[in-house]
Input
Amino acid sequence: MELIVIRHARPDREEHDHREGPADPSLSPLGMEQAAVTADLLATAKIDHIVASTMRRAVQTAEPLAAGLGLAIEQVDDLKESDHLRSEYVPAEELTTDHPIVVDYMDDPETVFGGEYDGFRTRVEAAFDGVVKRNPGRTVAVFCHGMVIGVFLQTILGHPDPFALFSDYCGITRVTASATGLRTIRSINEAAHVRHLDLVPRTGFEP
Output
């Protein structure tokens, strides 16, 4: 079977008191454009099924493709991002070097995983294994998150650094997978289709 793994489009910034629960931002106007362009690109990819993280930015990125193909979106909670419990979400383009997220990351990069890197890696690997086992012989589009994709690729490659492989907004990664555990990476972070929309310089830190 084939996994077409897509990072979500650009979300809005969302910050509130931690007592109000975790941040779960919607897509920004730019993100809506990115999602639409990505749906157009994938419209002819012979996709049989669509999966998304339960986080709003992933589901909204999947919606244009689902609508165009007439497919339902299966939401998988274990595909949610490492920061899903934070009460704030700040797009990387808006982060400054003195922002607490960046300060914490510079002190200890594994704070991105909430101190639970091993648990996050196990959760991500199990989520993708489940998608593979439920969809033999099918092409499945999976809409999720930057660290989810990076750690999934890390598990395939056996690379020691979970931050080495990261995707742009709506970056597309293709993996051929079998129920026996074989995984073959066909491409990583195809993003040319949205780069004309995203002209904002990056900070180099992508939570």
Q: What stands out?
A: Residues 167 and 189 are 5 Å apart (CA to CA). The first helix runs from residue 29 to 42. Confidence is low (pLDDT under 50) at residues 201-205.
